Task: structure prediction
Amino acid sequence: MTRKVIITCAITGSVHTPSMSPHLPITPDEIARQAIDAANAGASILHLHARDPKTGFPAPDPDLFMEFLSRINDATDAVINISTGGGMNMNVRDRIRAAANAAPEMASLNMGTMNFGLFPALASRSEWKHGWEPEFLESSRDFVFKNTFSDIETILADLGDANGTRFEFECYDVGHLYTLSHFVERGLIKGPLFIQFVLGVLGGIGADPDNLRHLKLTADKLFGDQYQFSVLGAGRHQMPLATLSAELGGNVRVGLEDNLYLAKGELAPDNASQVRKIREILDGMGLEIATPDEARVALGLKGADKVAF
Ligand code: KMH
Ligand code: ZN
Result:
């Protein structure tokens, strides 16, 4: 069978703030519309966070998620993936609530604790729409993104065992692969694994092509043929590293959560434009993209009829 590339689109996230782009979706309506357009453009997995509709502040409220989840589910057959990474303002319990409530086919699971540095973005502007934005970015200097062994065990039990949700294992450094391997050895995580290599987040591994090759080499040693990988390059590294991922046999993640631009100095008008861009690159490489159902089979997902929204 020819290999097909799974495109994940991460629609809004909790890293960028409203002043950075007028196109960042904030309200449930904006998130639903951009997610549906991204799926129609070829994304088979939609990675979702919610935000306060008035202020754009990252929000864990399950009711807010519900406002867009069923709309997306009715309009597309894309796999819905709910973040458990949440945002800086949330504790681990908050971060799990929406996914525990919605029982999606997929959820993210961050494989290590780190200092997640967003503060360099403070230098990009002096005027902000909302007072919380500069404070939020500044607070990242001292923010510990907590994903301890105990947190990971809780997420595996509350979402995986309880609801049959499977995971996008977000690995920001080589050590996170060893943590993942530890859980595989204990039998708490079973293949096929879907590993998201995250490169270019300050506090994690740098966005260097050699680092991606090393991450893949390490995963090959630890997981053999029991895993698939995808790549998320932060900011301007998004398209180059997605392209390298495809070249190395992997899948790709795009979306405004990870990068607000379409080209140097050109803000992406929406998420779908980034999906179309990576599709053109994949077409040019002679690679086909996976449909949502093909992604379901490849990743062993439970099916869109078994979610709670
Ligand atoms: N914002 C990305 C760098 C999550 O939602 O679990 C990582 C992320 C985390 O997507
Ligand atoms: Zn996310």
In short: The longest strand covers residues 193-199. Residues 10, 13, 15, 83-85, 108, 110, 170, 198, 201, 257 surround (5S)-5-amino-3-OXO-hexanoic acid (ligand 1) (CB under 6 Å). The chain has one domain: 7-306.
